[in-house]
Amino acid sequence: MIICGVDDAGRGSVLGPLVIAGISINKQNTKKLSSLGVKDSKKLSSKSRELLFKKIIDVVDDYYISKIPPRSIDANVRKHCLNDLEAKHMAKVVSKLHSDLSYVDSCDVNPIRFGKKISELSDNLPVKSYHHADSRFVVVSAASIIAKVTRDKAISKLQKTYDLGSGYPSDSRTIMFITNFYKKNNILPNFVRKSWKPVQKIIHEN
Fold first, then answer.
1. How much is the pTM?
2. What is d(CA 66, CA 176) in angstroms, rounded to the nearest whole number?
3. What is the mean pLDDT of the chain?
4. How many domains does the chain have?
């Protein structure tokens, strides 16, 4: 039996892509992931995640990554359907990996509804959706590591040009970067999510 795990990274960030990643593996081989020390990416250091990224790819049967750019995020936030956008990209990952059963980390308050939507969008492939699936299922933990490392690489690339911090609204360097850039140019770069409330606040105040 081939099972799949799907998770996201960067949903709460005010800049950069939202990354959806999935892995597929024979159910009998999931113990190999556990023995590598695979767990929820949030519980691992950046260095540990990078080391595990390579090991996970060697162990799994297949993996797939989908990156959602800020312009798509903004368009969907304005229509109040960010969860729908995420479901669509998770379904894309599920379809590509075409496993017997997929486990996904739900961003919806109703995980059953979210799983059903992903299943419908992926030709009714079996999907089980849970809150905190990244800490409950090792296949989702592995996907969370793939997603987080991919997202971190995208931010690192931007950091070579800009002093923008982590990209999260709780980071004062990120807010300072957006504020100063907007004050100087009266426009924001295309990697900033303009629909996010902290960014809207900066625009209105300046």
1. 0.95
2. 29
3. 96
4. 2
Cβ neighbours of residue 50 closer than 8 Å, sequence gap 6 or more = 149
What pLDDT does residue 64 have? 98
Placement of tokens 């939202």 in the chain = 18
Do 154 and 62 sit in the same domain of this protein?
A: yes
Same structural domain for residues 46 and 107? yes
**Which two structure tokens, joined as six digits, stand for 99?**
């496993």
Alpha helices in the chain (DSSP H): 30-36, 46-59, 70-78, 82-97, 111-121, 133-136, 138-159, 172-185, 197-205
Q: What are phi and psi of 21, to 5 degrees?
A: -130, 150
- The predicted-structure confidence for 95-109, as pLDDT tens digits, reads as follows 999 999 999 999 999
Range of the domain at 196: 161-205
- Residue 62 buriedness (CB in 10 A; 0-12 / 13-18 / 19+): middle
CB of 23 within 8 A of CB of 119?
no
Task: Starting at the earlier edge strand, list the strands of the sheet with 62-68.
Answer: 62-68, 18-26, 2-9, 101-105, 127-130
pLDDT by residue (tens digit) across 53-89?
A: 999 999 999 999 999 999 999 999 999 999 999 999 9
Residues 99 and 58 in one domain: yes
* Sole residue written with tokens 């849970």: 130
